[in-house]
Design a protein that fits this description.
Blueprint lengths: L4 E5 L3 H16 L7 E4 L7 E2 L2 E4 L1 H6 L5 E5 L4 H13 L5
Parallel strand pairs: 1-2, 1-5, 2-4
Antiparallel strand pairs: 3-4
Amino acid sequence: MSLPLFAVFGASGCGRGVMPLARAQLAREGILAAQLVFVDDQPEALNVNGHRVLRYEEFVQTEASTKQIVIAIANSKVREKLADRCAADGVRP
């Protein structure tokens, strides 16, 4: 059985600020840091602050029991489009 996968969508400023909060919350629930990744459509690196960076397509195709994501994008119009995209692919907020 595969484990759940959690992500922060956006690996730049906003996402890097949200990641420690997501990591702490998941740690309190006993979820491993390896189950938490960044998602970015145009990643500048494969690893940021100790977390893998996946393109959205890679994230969606990764085997996991469930997928949950927090969208850490400052632009509200972009954030709304990404939320719709995630919902269409069955990725839970």
